[in-house]
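Reminder: ligand-aware prediction takes two inputs, not one.
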Amino acid sequence: MLSKKIEAALNGQVAIEAASSQAYLAMASWAENQGLSGTAAFLYKHSDEERMHMLKLVKFINERGGKAVIPALKQPGTNFKGITDIFQALLFHETKVTQEINGVVDTCLKEKDYTTHNFMQWYVGEQIEEEALARTLIDKLNLIGNDKGGLYLFDRDLQGMSAATGGGGYKKEA
Ligand code: OFO
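Here is what comes back for the chain with hydroxy diiron-OXO moiety:
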């Protein structure tokens, strides 16, 4: 059975994962409108993965005798200056998500809830991968600069990455 504190912390994380999914959906749609189909495929998949992160929490809360709260969502940002801006925003967002996850882990330790602590380790590992990938992509974009040929290849690489992982995004599934 979840304590009220843990239930609230996990529901807070449900809202964060849902907001992440919306944010990446807005980015995907922007990329699609720019003709960056590989980047769009990657971001659509990333948005799907965030929804899956949310669902995993919803199911865990309910299974452990709590009540998952499905949150209302704010409209995400839609004005992007360019593709580098997108990935910088994504990294910034993910570092904030990591802090939130660490906060939940901390609450688990304070509440001596080792089951939820164990469950949250999957999220801790996921964040390491997501932040590392975002940093790699930003490094590549910085190398490319304003080179249109380079951008074309970058977008094609993301398309390939998306196909290799069954439609985009990261390699791990829950
Ligand atoms: Fe990318 O954040 Fe979920 O966990």
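Confidence is low (pLDDT under 50) at residues 167-174. The CA atoms of residues 149 and 155 lie 10 Å apart. We will return to this case in the review session.
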